[in-house]
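Notebook entry, structure prediction.
Reason for the run: the old model in the group folder had no record of what sequence produced it. Starting over properly, with the input documented here first.
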Amino acid sequence: MDLLKVATLFALTALAEIVGCYLPWLVLRQGKPLWLLLPGALSLALFAWLLTLHPSAAGRTYAAYGGMYIAVALLWLRFVDGIALTRWDAVGAFVALAGMAIIALQPAVQAG
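New structure, fully documented this time:
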């Protein structure tokens, strides 16, 4: 997969995971309606399915995905929670995304 495809898929995966965790958080912490648990569960199922679309081993996929998750979580912090990002947030997201790219785009290793 090329970097744009990998990054897009990871970004969608991260969004599904964050929504799947945020909706139960709203129910449990802010007293929102219980019916929000259903779309939360569906979002977590979507998250798990999206992770299966990557061609590399599960552990490598999870490791690379973590970098995108950090970046998307910080965007969530900014646009959903309304909290301004710091330069440290931006640098951390850049480092995490660089790590994602290194892991996800490494040359194929021959089984031997």
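Summary: The radius of gyration is 16 Å.
The old model has been moved to the deprecated folder.
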